[in-house]
Every structure is written in C-alpha cells, then in structure tokens.
Amino acid sequence: MIPPGAPIVTAAQMRAAEEAVFRREPQEDVMERAGAAVAREVSRFAQGAPILVLAGPGNNGGDAYVAARLLKAAGHDVAIAASGEPGTGAARAMHGRWDGEVGSLYQARPRPVLVDGLFGTGLSRPLERGIAPVLAELVAASRFSLAIDLPSGLATDTGADLGAPRGISATLALGALKPAHVLDKGLERCGHVLLADIGIPVESQWRSVARPQLAPPGARAHKYSRGLVVVVEGDMPGAARLAAHAAMAGGAGYTVLASAGDTGGGPDALVRQRIASGDDLADFLTETRIGAVVVGPGLGRDRRAEGLLKAALNANLPLILDGDALTLLGKSAAAWLQRRTAATWLTPHSGEFDRMFEGAEGDKITRTLMAAAEARVTVIHKGADTVIATPRGEVRVLSRASSWLSTAGTGDVLAGTLAAQVAGGNKQAAEAAAWLHARAAALAGPAFIADALPMHLPQAISECL
Ligand SMILES: NC(=O)C1=CN([C@@H]2O[C@H](COP(=O)(O)OP(=O)(O)OC[C@H]3O[C@@H](n4cnc5c(N)ncnc54)[C@H](OP(=O)(O)O)[C@@H]3O)[C@@H](O)[C@H]2O)[C@@H](O)CC1
Ligand SMILES: Nc1ncnc2c1ncn2[C@@H]1O[C@H](COP(=O)(O)OP(=O)(O)O)[C@@H](O)[C@H]1O
Ligand SMILES: [K+]
Q: What is the pLDDT of residue 136?
C-alpha cells in the first residue's frame, strides 16, 4: 500500500524543503515532530513488547533518539543500539536528551520490535559489510520492524539496493515520499509505506497515483459524446479485442474494431469496420467524431502493420501506441512523434521502452521524463512500478498493483482503458487509466486471465463517482 496522491521528492529536494523551514524554526523542533510520528506508529504495533531502536550517525539517527525517548516515556521497554557517535548538531542534541544507555549495534540483542534509524536520505554509498548482516539479522529476528523514512541501505533517488535488509514490516516516509518508496527494490524492501506530515511543505510535480474523480454521463449524453474509440486489429486479433473490450467497459460510448476480416469473438456491442490497408484506415480516420485511436496490441510487424501505423500517426487524432507499434517505431519513435500535433500516449513495457529510448539513463522516473520530453508525448512506462511522465515534467507513479497482472494481455486492457478515458475527455487520462486498471486487477483477485479484467472496470469506475 502506497499513500495515494502523495508528493514524491528526491533527497536534494527534501533537504531544500527542510532548509527553508529551518530558517524560521529550530531544526530540533522538526526532528521532535519526526521522532514523535515514529513513536506513534511504533507504539500502535508494539503492544507492550520490548523495542530495540537502532540509531545511525546522522539525522535519521536523531529521529531514532527522539522516538526512543518518547516511547520510553510512554512506558515501553526500549533499548538503543548505535552504529557510532552522533555526527550532526541535531542528532547530538537528541542523543543528549536520551537518559538511558546506548549500546553498540554490533552487540545488539534482537527484540520483538525493531526501529531502523541507521540511515535515511543521507545514505551516500553501499552499507559497510559489517552493518548489512547485523541489520538483516535484527530485522529477521523481530516480529515487527519499522524503518524511519527509508530502510537503511536503499538509495533514496533510485530505489537501488545498497545493502537494505529484507522483511521490514513498514516504512514511515517523513514529509514526502521519495523515489525509493515506489521504485525498483524499494517495492520489496519498504513493506507497507506510511507517510507522516512533519510540517515541511513540499512542492513537487511528482506524485503517487491517486483515485480519479469521474463523473457519470450527463443527462443529455449520447454514445458519441461519451467517446468514440477505434482499435486497430492486426496479426493477433485477440489483443485488439482485449483492448476494445476494455475501452467499452472503461466507459467509451462507441467502440469500433478496425479489422481486415471478420475474425469473430468479442462483445456483440463491438462495431466492426472493414479496414484492409493503411489507405483504408487513413480514410476512416477522417471521421471527426473519433476521440481516441489505439494501435499496437497484436498489430504484427509486417508491411500491412507498418501501413496501419503510418495512417494512425498521420491522422490528426488522439493516439495510443502500444506493443508492436512501439517496436516498429523503435529508435525513430521520437522523430516520428515530435511531428504530431494531436496528443499521443505511449504504453511501453521496459523492453519496448529500451528499444525506443536506448540513450535514456538513470532511474526509471528520470528515463521516463527524458523520453516524454524528447518525443513530446505522455509515456506510461509499465511494470511493477509504472511511471507516467508528461512533456511538462509531471510524474505519477503507480506501484504495488496486484502482481497477478503479470499475465499476457493485461497491457492490452490498459491501452483500451486509457483510450476510453482519452475519448471521454479526461484531462488526467493516463493517471485515471492506471488507477482503474490496478483497481480492476485487485477486484479480479488471484490468477485472473486478462479476459476477466475488463469485467471489473465498471466496479472500479463506480468507486470514482
Ligand atoms: N535535516 C533534518 O533536521 C531532518 C532530517 N530528517 C531525518 O534525517 C534524515 C537525513 O539525515 P542526514 O542527511 O543526516 O543523513 P542520514 O540518512 O542520517 O545519514 C547520514 C550519515 O550516514 C553516513 N553514511 C552515509 N552512508 C553511509 C554508509 N553506507 N555507511 C556508513 N555511513 C554512512 C554519513 O556519513 P558521510 O557520508 O558524511 O561520511 C552521515 O554521517 C532523513 O532521512 C530523516 O530521517 C527528519 O528528522 C526531519 C528533520
Ligand atoms: N509484478 C507486477 N506488479 C504489478 N503490475 C504488473 C506486474 N507485472 C506486470 N504488471 C502490469 O501488467 C501489465 C502488463 O503489460 P504488458 O507487459 O504490455 O503485457 P501484454 O503485452 O501481454 O498485454 C502492465 O500494466 C504492467 O504494469
Ligand atoms: K532508516
């Protein structure tokens, strides 16, 4: 579980936000609030069991000393083990306010409740060999463990593993989420992510995906005003049908499958339009009521596929490109897409993304932002951590969706869901589609097949009205 709609900031941005607050308020007061938030969460879970608090040399350790003092004052049995002397002024002050003993991390005996205050956003290199195994053992031996801000050993801005333990029960993000809470190894290492307001205002164009606010069709709505979606069928008709079904269940008023022949299957309400070639498609896409076109699911990569893709790219209509369309574009994706004047969305998984934007480097947020800016499109970079980036620099991250989504065809369902939101005029279509898709997966439960996913979209939508 990730707090929805929460700002995500890098370590440097968090530090800048803290510095701004310290100009009008003592650092110790902010640290008292951070430690109090930690103590509140820990006391909820400890239920009277003995607590071991680990304190590192920096301000993460400072938070740990505060939490230990408040937990002890509330009657808990608390022991502290430190990896060394406190190294910052605020951490020294908090160490000074602790009136008990401070043991050594290396001699610490496990306790049922563990608080990890070794390192947070200041982690600058992999954990030293000595620290990582000791921390891993103490976490493994505990019944409940809470990481202050971040599990120690997780790179704040990338979620890369620098020696973080496995099995942390919960992480209390302080002030804002950091990329490590939503990306890469952070998905497995943070446990439940909780967010504490510690009175540091943060500005960010990056957020976790939130539940969208949707509206039912107006009293005078008709099928075209609800949104007309065209899904282009190719070599693997099932993929296009999945996308079309998702568009229908995702709220589109009218869905057309542009297909070379009648391959059958799919809902009866699905309208079929015979499209044999790129020229046919170009003609058909002059229909002005079309609100979104989906090209790519099961498209194939032959000459016909290329012709269909070109016709869609040249049409002045909102366009969702997925699957084979992305592979066909490959390295020339940005050059093709920059020329478009109508809005475009790309929904690559990591393989498709890397084929299109092989020069992009860095963490997933940075790479996706770079791609969106270069191609001037919205990119929905799928995976266990789905990163949505717009050319204006906005980012939305959806992580911890059902891992049962890892089954063939669920990406086609996302493309269709997105098309429905685009055709319906939703200005936040990508974020809404990502949320609805993940919610449908949660409702579908375990071991669903992609065919079952669209059936749960209406329920997901009902939760947004
Ligand atoms: N600013 C504030 O008042 C507030 C901050 N807050 C809290 O502070 C946290 C950030 O604090 P921070 O910047 O002091 O960094 P922190 O994560 O404690 O670690 C830095 C220390 O670790 C050391 N070190 C680094 N890597 C290492 C390694 N691999 N192995 C060994 N040592 C290593 C590093 O040494 P150095 O790199 O300098 O050699 C330095 O001594 C943040 O996450 C939040 O919890 C909240 O209380 C709100 C108020
Ligand atoms: N482990 C996972 N956890 C959460 N979501 C996942 C996971 N694996 C895949 N997904 C989601 O499932 C979908 C898979 O899409 P894709 O790889 O394009 O599949 P296909 O091409 O077969 O339709 C994406 O929305 C992706 O974000
Ligand atoms: K920590």
A: 98
Q: Listing from the earlier edge strand, what are the strands of the sheet with 378-381?
A: 206-208, 395-399, 385-389, 378-381, 344-346, 319-321, 290-295, 228-232, 254-259, 271-274
Three-state helix/strand/coil letters over 387-425: EEECCCCCEEEEECCCHHHCCCCHHHHHHHHHHHHHHCC
Query: Do residues 276 and 176 share a domain?
Result: no
Residue 1 placed within a domain: no
What is the pLDDT at residue 430? 98
Q: Is 214 among the domain residues?
A: no
- Count the neighbouring beta carbons within 10 Å of the beta carbon of residue 428: 17
Tell me how far apart the alpha carbons of residues 430 and 180 are, in angstroms, rounded to a whole number: 22
Domain CATH code at residue 346: 3.40.1190.20
Is 192 in a helix, a strand, or coil?
A: strand
- Type of residue found at 26: P
Range of the domain at 144: 11-207
- The minimum-distance atom of ligand 2 relative to the CA of 438 is 5
Least distant ligand from the CA of 150: 3
Q: Quote the radius of gyration of the chain (alpha carbons, Å).
A: 25
Whether residue 96 sits in one domain with residue 60: yes
Q: Are 50 and 72 a contacting pair, CB within 8 Å?
A: no
Query: Do 259 and 406 belong together in one domain?
Result: yes
What value of ipTM does the predicted structure carry? 0.96
Q: The CATH number of the domain where 178 resides is what?
A: 3.40.50.10260
* Residue 262 pLDDT: 76
CA gap 378, 371 in Å, rounded: 9
CA of 383 to the centre of ligand 2 (A): 5
pTM above 0.80, yes or no: yes
d(CA 126, CA 119): 11
> For ligand 1, which residues put their CB under 6 angstroms from it?
18, 27, 30-31, 34, 56-63, 87-88, 90, 119-128, 148-149, 174, 198
